[in-house]
Input
Amino acid sequence: SAVFEPDHIYTQPGTYTIQLVGLDESQCVDGDTAFVNVTVLPEVNPTLSADTTICAGTSAVLSATGTSALHWIAQPGLNNLTNPTQTVQPNATTTYQIIDQNTCDADTLDVTITVSIAHVIAGPDASICVGQTAGITATGTGSFAWTPSTNLSNANAASTNCTATSTTTYTVTLTNTDGCTDQDSLEVFVF
Output
């Protein structure tokens, strides 16, 4: 280019060699040439797996992509902060962050792992005589399933009537809206 202080926009990362040739006023080569290497860094554009919900006691896999400078911000449960793939098992809802950077740009992304906890309480125990009915109850948020289901008026209700003919342990399984489960038991004593 014959332009004094020319501009050039590089569209691809890489190393480019620029040659500067000095000319005199009559456009003749003055005998002065210089070479400069220009390194164009890749754009920082990391990606990160989506927010997700897990059940308490289970794990989630976090995956990130980016440049070789990509790293996780230290957080309990993260190992080898430069590894783009992490398996985590938080006890509570936790947000994890990555940073990708070079000398020209930086970007931070975060992913939230929501920990869903199902909790059910069955009880109290009940005592009945043969031929009598006892109401048994479980508390919690979600759907219920009692086992064994025999001698129950509705094995899928939080509260149901029981006409057991012998002492029986009933276990209730609660499933919350995230598909997470919890169990508790009660005893129906029959005399």
Remarks:
- DSSP finds no helices and 16 strands in the chain.
- The CA atoms of residues 19 and 81 lie 41 Å apart.
- The mean pLDDT is 93.
